[in-house]
Input
Amino acid sequence: MVEKLAELKVDYAGVKFRNPTVLVSGVLGTDAATLKMVAKRGAGAVTMKSIGPEERAGHNNPTIVATEHFMHNAVGLPTPGYKNLGDKWEALKGRDFPLIASVFARSVEEHAVVAEEVASHKPDLIEINLSCPNVKGLGHAFGTDPEVAGKIVEGVKKVSGKVPVIAKLTPNTHRLVEVGKACEEAGADGLVAINTLGGMMINIDARRPVLHNKFGGVSGPAIKPVAVKSIYQLYANCKIPILGMGGIINGEDAIELMMAGASAVGIGTAVHYRGIEVFELVIKEMNDWMDKNNVKKVSELVGAAHE
Amino acid sequence: MSDIPKMVEIKRIQKETKNIRTFFLDTAINSAPGQFLMAWLPGIDEKPFGVSFKAPELGITVEQKGKFTEELFFLKEGDKIGIRGPYGNGFDTEGVKTACLVAGGVGVAPINALAIELKQKGVEVKIILGARSQDHLSLSESLLQCGELYITTDDGSMGEKGFTTNKLRALLKDEKFDKIYTCGPEVMMIEVMKIADSNGIEMEASLERYMRCGTGVCGACSINGIMVCKDGPVFNSGQLKKLTELGKWARSKSGKKVTLDDYCRGKC
Output
């Protein structure tokens, strides 16, 4: 099915995806077998679970809960650490799909240390997680300060060789566009937006926060308007391409984010609602809409909502 | 279905052994045998437990092993815990007229729910229940009401001294079953699979891996790219044979690939 849809091919930050759908970081990306499975089931590219400086277990459960409107998570960046991923890289050699390696660290300098090692395994893209809202001292603080974000991108660019570098931005700031521009000026090859929105849930019968971490990130249908606005503003102010994400459940959601300015679209929470089949389904739904509306190339839709 | 824990009252606590208790909960969650719940202790953690009794009261049978179960064992009747679910696929009992159930240790929990359902359906059931010792052996009274029960312990403190798999081999000398179901230590289940295979009998096993979401999103419980929480926890022998990590590898909470031995030791 997927092979017939040549008009869905996109180019993002110099990497060719056979269709615009991308498995986002933190969803199904723990092992190589799952990443291969997701690619086989239709995703145009897949993202590995964020790789950090040292082994971290993440938070206790509940780490992920959901309603029909949104998912709420604070997994806490579990990672074997960049030195403990040999088996995963080995199993991903010779792959026939684009691979995005997500990285996070605790300081400007440490980002470069992690990214340099990661780049040596030749992923197709390196995504800097400038924005995880769920761990104290990791990510979030970097993603809300344009100057720091720029320094991190600059440091990673110095060690990434030929691997393009993209920056994942947080919507939990009034400085989103400034941060995006700072990343662009520092040499980022692309932007990723948006990460989850900070939130909290309380179980009123238990009189306690639902997530073990108390606070977590909100994703899913409820945040789509925030994603659309963020992508729209970034597209209007930056030249580098955007991998758009936030609330995509079906093909029409994906097209909406592309019209806001996304060159490719991330799918994560939708796996909860529609299973791993979601990639095939979204691709088919995009294709159906394009057929109906006589759109020949999906790339024509990028930024179509801008005057 | 909302995948958020709901607080429910512990109606009754049944002491099975020194280390094992069954918690009956004041809720009506309709689950199939083999499905599991996520049980939450606010501020502590949330863990998956196979349903051991579906009706008239919903029960989970728990062995005290770590911090979470230690806290759970402090709770009394009338206290509340959070639960969400049921999750996973459950055992397939379609067309089965005769069945052999092989349970090891606290793996007996989902096997008990299955035994009750099979008995209700009129299936002829034989059950082999094994554990390290009497202290690790539970639900034998309930199982006795569902079919013929054979007990084995590694140390001979109850029933026959030896392994469940020896008993299964002995039974199969004279008998034939439509299906064999198993839950317990992975080494035991692999052996059960081999025995079932060599006798040309269909089988299903219920697996366990570290879980977070319960809905197949986070990827923590992957075994060869298959999500134990959603695609499983029950797999048939055809599926099990494709799992090259079975009996060898698991993933720790951090996602690091570790030997199954290390994984089990870290948890126990």
Remarks:
- Chain A has a mean pLDDT of 94.
- Chain A has one domain: 2-55+81-198+217-301.
- The domain at 2-55+81-198+217-301 of chain A is CATH 3.20.20.70 (TIM Barrel).
- Chain A touches chain B through 47 residues (CB under 8 Å).
